[in-house]
Amino acid sequence: MGNGFAEIYGEYLRDESRQVGTAESIIFPKTEEEIAASVRECNLKNISVTTQGAKTGLAASAVPFGGHIINLSRMNKVTGARYDGKQDRFFLKVQPGVLLTEIRKYLINKSFITEGWDEESLKTLEHMDKNQWFYSTDPTEASASIGGIAACNASGAKSFRYGSAREHIESIRVVLTDGDVLSLKRGQSIAANGIFELVTESGKIFSGKLPKYKMPAVSKNTSGYYNKPDMDMIDLFIGSDGTLGIISEIEIELNRTQQSDWGVTIFMPDEDKALDLVRALRGERISGMSEPMKLRPSAIEFFSHEALKMLKLQQKTNPAFSSVQEIQQGYHTAIFIEIEGDSDDEIWEGIEELGDVIVMLGGKEEYTWVANNAAGLEKLHSFRHACPECVNMQIDEAKKTDSRITKLGTDMSVPDERLKEVMKMYNEDIERNNLHAVIFGHVGNNHLHVNIIPRNMDEYKRGKDLFLVWAEKIAAMGGAVSAEHGVGKLKVPFLQKMYSKDELDEMRNLKKVFDPKQLLNRGAIFAYEGVDA
Ligand SMILES: Cc1cc2nc3c(=O)[nH]c(=O)nc-3n(C[C@H](O)[C@H](O)[C@H](O)COP(=O)(O)OP(=O)(O)OC[C@H]3O[C@@H](n4cnc5c(N)ncnc54)[C@H](O)[C@@H]3O)c2cc1C
């Protein structure tokens, strides 16, 4: 397949990061056995392997650095369901290539393609008819695959309440480089004092020592391998960026849908007050409050002043954004929250409490948008989604000045107490470097996407340099250089700011236990000589 590969399979050489790689061959397996046969052959011939889900990743993780591609888009079936009546827990078993959008469609319509399902799974569907369930992991991009979501430990806005993908994965099957399969169920493969032992389906034992590095104390982190001395070993493979094995089956847990789901966008007079509101919404008792708020949102999102200005301009000039609600004068910074509850009355109580805090912080209730039904909430979601879309449009414009310009967006998180400090750092550094940037994202988790919009190549280079400076400063604050997109290939230099060489060597040694020839996803997480991503 060597000749003309790029002409025929060009679309498989890139992902949403818009980086482009190279490869010599590709397969689209339909079964776990086909994956196993393919990796076994590559292992024997020393050919590197890049696994692909839906290629929506933003860290170039699915972009191949030569070798063979295993694209899982044809392993796209939901293969079973399970209900644990004692604990009222509901699970779906899926192949890795199933798309998030498909899962949502099945759950809303309560209609699955059940061909090949066992008796227990079919019975389980009867239970589903009586109750509403949803899959809480929502990495914004609904065309992502469940395998990719697991491999990146993706999250998104509602992770503030529900946690990242990891918290909703009950079991996985992983094909290792020699074609052997590990079946891991949560709670059944626990390391003890940093020592682990895993047995494959053929009886082969993988054992070793876990690294000593400590992960940052942040609520969102996908910077290198998950590592704790007494960890569940399933967590090593979740978020491992396709570098340890190929996930061939996943059991995801669903959550019960709540009766009411409202959205509120609050426009605050300045950024500092907006951040105080965030702190209050997370349950901190801020100055002026006699007790912490009772309201517990499921998502807390942020829009900087520049992000609002960008959206306001688009509203005036771009018909594609006409459905987005008009931003009134008198805004500065906005916070969007989503609130779920058992009834509208319950949510309304929370909204009244919120109104008092907004006024206390100098905000005005008339600058607040409340959506109390699905259509209204959808409008607020499109307002949020318009941010990355506008950024992409501006990057495309900048690209016309120099084709080397690509998206420059951060994905770093810090501990709660560092929120204001990190915002100050972003604002001051952007101003000092005379750059233009919009900031938005998951402020509830202190996880903001700072998007630098370069006007030329010089600004692009300075922005890129600044990201490396921020990676170092954020690591020093006890933060994570990647909170939800994974390290992939683009953030390898950032990870080097977060962990020492020895710690990264320990991480690499862990990889070598499962992938001794280091053939899986070359260039991801670990530097690969000769390639500048
Ligand atoms: C507009 C936009 C917004 C986004 N917003 C968010 C957000 O809010 N939150 C968030 O978390 N993410 C976000 N993302 C990125 C998100 O992480 C990815 O969209 C998704 O999780 C990756 O899934 P995928 O199937 O596309 O994987 P790919 O991009 O194909 O692969 C990603 C990585 O997973 C590996 N991989 C894929 N499948 C497997 C498998 N079966 N076994 C082993 N390794 C595998 C690949 O090798 C690669 O390392 C956004 C992306 C876009 C384009």
Brief digest:
The chain is an alpha+beta fold and 533 residues long.
Can you characterise this structure?
It contains 15 helices and 19 strands. With 533 residues, it is an alpha+beta fold. The strands form 4 sheets. Strands 12, 13, 14, 15, 16, 17, 18 and 19 form an 8-stranded antiparallel β-sheet that branches. Strands 4, 5, 6, 7, 8 and 11 form a 6-stranded antiparallel β-sheet that branches. A 3-stranded parallel β-sheet has the order 1-3-2, covered by helices on one side. Strand 7 (169-175) and strand 8 (181-185) form a beta hairpin. The two termini are 25 Å apart. Flavin-adenine dinucleotide is lined by residues 15-16, 50-58, 61-62, 72, 96, 139-141, 144-145, 147-149, 151-152, 154-156, 241-242, 246-247, 388, 484-485, 521, 524.
